[in-house]
Structures are given as C-alpha cells and as structure tokens.
Amino acid sequence: MLSKRGVTYVETLKEDIGRDIRRERRHLERYRRRTKRSSNAMDFDVENYHSYDEACSQTHLVTLLNVSKTFEGRPMYGVKISSSYRFKPAIFVDAGIHAREWVAPAAALYMIKKLVSQYGKDPVITKSVNRFDWYIIPQANPDGYEYSRVSDRLWRKTRSRNITVNKWCVGADANRNWGHRWGEAGANRSPCSNIYAGSRPFSEPEIVGLRDLVTWQIPNLIIYASLHSYGQLLLSPWGYTQARPDNYLDQ
Length: 251
Known about the structure:
Layout: H1 17-34, H2 52-56, E1 62-69, E2 75-81, E3 90-95, H3 103-117, H4 123-131, E4 133-137, H5 142-150, H6 205-216, E5 221-227
Parallel strand pairs: 3-4, 3-5
Antiparallel strand pairs: 1-2, 2-4
C-alpha cells in the first residue's frame, strides 16, 4: 500500500506497540497505588501521566478559566497566568487536542508549574510573566483523553456522537474542526476516519470553547501554540498550502 503511494523507505520504530501500552498501564497503576493526590499545586508530579480530574485539582498568579463543557459533560479548564490585572500581550497554548498524545498535556502542566513556582526566583520566567499574559489549556480534549486511558490507548478524536451518517463512528479530529479552510487539505469527510473534520466547522464543543475564549476574552493575542506529539518539530502555518505567512521571518 505504501509503495503505491510513492513511499520508498519505511522504518519500524516499534515491533510491538501493544507490549509498550501494557507496560505503561502497569506503571500508572503502581503510581496510583503508591501515591496520594496532593492539593498543593507545587507538589504536583509532572513526571507521571495524571487523570483529567487530578490535573484539574491543581490550581496563585493563576486564574482558573472554565472554557466549555465537553460532549460528555466534563468541564474543560484552562489557566491565565499574569502578574497584573491589566491586559498585556497574550500567549495562548493548548494541549491534548489529540487524545492519545499524552505527553502534550504533561508538557503544558510542566509549563504551568514552572511559570508559577519559579516566578520571582528565575529572572527569565519572572520577566516572561511580567511581560506577557499566559493562557494555557492543558487538556483540550478531556473526553478523548479519558477514553484513551481506560479503553483505547490509541484513540485520537473527540467522543461526540455522529447522528447523520454512521452512528457507529464516534468523534471528530478536533484539530481539523476549526472554521478556517475547514474540510480542505489533510482532512476527511468520513466519520470513521481518524482525520474526520466533523459534520461542520465548530461542531465540537471543545473547539467552540477555544474559539470563544480566544475571540472574546483575549484582546491582545500575539502567539497561539498547540502542543502535539510525535516529533521534535516547530510547525508554523499554513497546513493547506506551502506558501509561508507574511510574518514568517519574524519568528
């Protein structure tokens, strides 16, 4: 199949991904038995993958944001980290929009912990918090994330129900559900596809919440970054063309 599509080189990185998933699951279970959940955000262990409820319980410089409700009724939270009440240039970060990419929410939680715990101690972090408002959404797909923890480790999409075409195919690729150039390059109209863009732009409540937060509550947005895995890459717009944005050289 790959050769028919012009792929001439293939390297197998994992011979048995199922074995790795089982090992990961055993590690998480041992961690849960060994530790008690702390209510102190500074004690939050960023070296383990936490459940969605555990991550939300850790909340100082910090304002808790209730971004939206997910399809399955979970609250989707974020934080604003700021050293003053006036609006400053804003940096927005989301993570976990693809459910199975667990390291992305972990990285976002690490960012939150460092920005808060090192403010007033680390001169670089202190300057960053004084200069910018930080908005971080550590889990932009709570339903899919929890499903990937308890049922299907490789689940990618949201958990919304398709009532129009194929009722057995669940969820949409939330990363492809934004309105700009919706359904074009890199997306699929089949509800069973992992890159299904949804029945319409902003069909997923998680993306509606992100859109409304960015549009109506953040007046001075200068950077929007979305954390993903796998790959040590910085991807800049656009995804639908090879043309570079006008401000590409400013990066």
